[in-house]
Amino acid sequence: MSASQAAKKQGGLAGVIAGESAICTCGLGNGLNYYGYAIEDLARNCDFEEVAFLLQYGELPTSKELESYKEKIIASRALNENLKAVLRAIPKTAHPMNLMQSAVAALGSLEPESDDFKDQDEKIIRLLGVLPSVLCYWHHYANFGREIDFNSAQKSIAGYFLEKLELQAPSDEFIKAMHCSLVLYAEHEFNASTFTARICASTKSDIFSSVAAAIGALRGPLHGGANEAAMHLIEGFSSVEAAIDGVNKKLENKELLMGFGHRIYGTGGDPRNALIKVWSKKLGGDTLLFKVSEAIENLMKEKKPNLPPNADFYSASAYYFMGIPTDYFTPIFIMSRVSGWCAHIKEQRANNKLIRPSSTYIGPEPRNFIKITQR
Ligand code: COA
After folding, report:
1. CB of 261 sitting under 6 A from ligand 1
2. Going by fewer Cβ within 10 Å, which terminus of the chain is more open, N or C?
């Protein structure tokens, strides 16, 4: 079946090649590479900042470059008073993804990008530095009425975020697990949120608008929100037996099992899953939650071999074992994927053409207009 036949049959632009990109291979031989580097090498060896640098500039940094990059990100952590006021106005009941989107949109007003985009790299670094502060500041203010500062001895986004969330130094193990998760979530070709960012950037809009648009697309449970939905699924079972029974029932009822399936990877599976599973097992291998997760994975392998777990399935339990509230799983995804979105925004801008596809019209035939007074 050709790509266009597949798209027609399945909808959702499945199989449609929507443009060129040098950033990432996704699903070629089921592999995942960022600028040619295998995800396995990056996830096992790199801090997230190394990968963010790779995505921003196209090459891995030297030690000196990495040091200076990290310093710039650290210098971008603080929120100014106006942004704090915006965050304080957002109630505890807000969805944290809307909160993050509002903060990025507010940055577009408070710290606008220049019209010629000459400062786009500075703005990318600002976003990398500020997003963990946004979530943690709001978390403490909305829930406990306290305002946190942005000072920390933690040099990495992973360590800084974990420290500011709990207001205590995280373990090295948690920091390493978080680096791995951020590396895995950083980039994924023309997924829904990245494509949204590229569409927005193609209108020559600013970087904050493009990232805010992408956050909106990431929020849904068929995309980024799947890690939270997977957590709800797993924690809903009080034993391995209940999980097997419950998942069987869901399959009989043709319900979606969150954290399984992928548009691109198909039966070969998502290469990120094995990498994050290692961390989930290391952090919580003895717990009932992990045993329930494995039981669900094994049952799905038996009953639905064409729907292997994706990156979200074991990311959920890994975050849970780090003590992160479920509502913050997808906002963490933003802190990472912003690097990929911005790589695509830069690439789109470098060779821009407005993205404006066409549709097949299926509406009424031309008809006579009747004035409102005669309808
Ligand atoms: N659980 C149960 N059945 C699933 C499923 C899942 N997670 N994912 C797909 N299927 C089924 C569909 O119901 C459909 O069945 P049908 O042919 O009988 O109607 C079939 O598999 C094909 O699925 P489809 O929805 O057409 O595939 P897609 O490429 O459009 O969807 C996802 C891809 C990722 C949106 C889909 O697999 C899904 O919703 N997964 C759960 C959400 C998730 O984990 N998202 C994160 C992705 S990284």
Report:
1. yes
2. C
Query: Residue 73 and residue 128: Cα distance in Å, rounded?
Result: 6
Is 70 exceeded by the pLDDT of residue 1?
no
What is the secondary structure of 325-369 as a DSSP string?
Answer: -GGGHHHHHHHHHHHHHHHHHHHHHHT-----------SPPP---
The more confidently predicted of residues 14 and 335 is 335
Question: What pairs with residue 33 in β-bridges?
Answer: 25, 38
Q: What is the percentage of the chain residues whose pLDDT exceeds 90?
A: 92
Length of the chain: 375
Phi, psi of 14 (to 5 degrees): -60, 130
User: Mind listing the domains of the chain with CATH numbers?
Assistant: 24-219+338-350 (1.10.580.10), 226-321 (1.10.230.10)
Q: How far apart are CA 250 and CA 253, in angstroms?
A: 5
**Does the pLDDT value for residue 3 go beyond 90?**
no
Active site residue 312: yes
Give me the catalytic one of 262, 270, 286, 327. Answer: 262
pLDDT at residue 29 above 70?
A: yes
DSSP, res 113: P
What is the C-alpha separation between 193 and 214, in angstroms, rounded? Answer: 4
Please say if 262 is a catalytic residue: yes
Contacts of 74 (CB under 8 A, 6+ apart): 129, 155, 160
Q: Is the distance from the beta carbon of residue 185 to the nearest atom of ligand 1 less than 6 Å?
A: no
End-to-end CA distance of the chain: 48
| Mean pLDDT along residues 306-332 | 96
Predicted local confidence at residue 9, as pLDDT:
55
Residue 4's pLDDT band (cuts 50, 70, 90)? very low
- Distance from C-alpha of 187 to C-alpha of 51, rounded to nearest angstrom: 10
